[in-house]
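Protocol step 4 of 5: obtain the predicted structure for the target chain.
Materials: sequence only (see below). No template structures provided, no constraints applied. The aim of this step is simply to have a reference model before the mutagenesis design in step 5. Sequence pasted as it appears in the construct record:
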Amino acid sequence: MAGPAFGARAAAGNPVDEVARLCRYAHLYGAKVHATVNTLLEDAEFAKARKLMQELYEAGVDVFIVQDLRLLEGPLPPVELHASTQTAIRTPERARELEALGFRRLVLERQLTLEQIRAIRAAVSCELEFFIHGAICVGYSGQCYLSQQLTGRSANRGVCAQACRSRYDLVDASGKVLVRDQPLLSPRDLRLDGLLPELVGAGISSFKIEGRLKNASYVKNVVRHYRGVIDEFIASYPGYAAASAGRLEGGFTPDPDRTFTRGWTPAFVDAGPDGQPRAKMRSEDAAKAMGEPLGEIVAVRGRVVEISGAKPLANGDGLSFVGEEGAVTGARVELAEGRRVILRETTGLLPGMRVFRNLDIRFERELEKNMPRRVLDVALDWHSQEGRTVVTASSQDISVEQRFTDEAPLAEKPDLALEGLRRQLGKRTGPFAFSVRNVVADPVRFYPAAFLNQIRRDLAAALQERLENRPRSSVFLSQAVQKERSGAGALNRSMLGIPGELLRSRYCIRRELGLCPRCRVKPGMTEAVTPGADPGSEPWYLVNQKNRLRLHFDCAHCEMVVLSPDC
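Step 4 output (structure tokens):
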């Protein structure tokens, strides 16, 4: 999460006291809080950024994720540093540079193949993190200047205008329009739940979900889904363990299709022999959330629309309708009757239009009312001899105890007294599920239920206090790392100004259209396409209102480059 500034999402900041509250909650479950300080800084901002990092450290933050390497040239709190994906980590050489600066984890570029991840894994010994779900930046992370060029809002300063999600015409050198009014730079959302074992095998130990500006429903749904995927992996592959504590009980059944999605792509992780995606990456209809596909319009009669497909609809659902030219129309369901819905307005809706649901009202209610519970198991030991009793409760790596002089009366029925002791102490309190592990009672005494319940509650409170405030490990730098950091700023790959190369990407418009000269196979197809009309003379241009951007295809590196108008 971000603090109040410098978090690469200017609209997603959090007050320091809120970060502190989150840290206490996370530490209860053995989870760490990673604070993003990953915007590119102006010279005058370094003092403020360092002050903020100290405040966040005092609030309980365990890790800082940074982009601007000049931060490393001065004093920092003694916790782990992770290199943001904004530091452009896509080669073994870059990974070695950053590891030499003392980074404990590298967050890799999204546009990598498994082979490239393996090569980076072989080059460094630090941990590797990879995005497993969510939006994909079309340009290499930290090196996209498209928003800054078109709107003056810099992605490296946390105010990206998402110019890649705009609609463009594709025009050739002669002025002929090859594609009209399409989101040509907008990829679908990443989804890699089916490739988790391959990513672990390639050397990834931490998975990242993009979505700090998504709503709570998306966060609940997607995080719950991947928690289940990871737990299944751990159960199937001995030797792996979760990084935090607790187990989930009950709650809704997650389904990523039922909250925000532009459609899915495994991107380059599921690449073919040519290193390119096997399926289309572009969100063809719209760059916004289309939602789950339902079917097509069968008929329109006044305000009544009949839809094909078997998925039930509900009053209040949000629908998207896509016409032949790709135009998207949205509507809310006023009344659902089986496969028929009544809308306020049906102008422009025709049979054959594709239908998506981008708001599932019943699922939203389920997410709100039926949250899973994260439970921490606690082992309790009771030891009572010679009138002195010690009760110990242990969870994770923390133990607390209560001692008292035992003056309770001797039990007339020892077996029943021991049964009652186990029953009362083995209940739940707050997030804790107590289970009595050992009981030594010599002699056996009788205790009222209220007395035992209070012992359990006191142990729970003491355990929660210790877990929430457990000490952090301090990071101490070797002289070699300190020497490397003295010139760390020279290794910055991002810049505050606007270069002529606005973005570089492995995503390629020419290949998406089936016009790649090296591979005449459209994504998702196995046979070469038959050459059609002249694809147009190069260079090609992306045109959006008054904006005109030149495309360059660097086929030697299998990359597409978007250039400023002056280049």
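Step 4 remarks: Confidence is low (pLDDT under 50) at residues 529-533. The CA atoms of residues 24 and 469 lie 7 Å apart.
Proceed to step 5.
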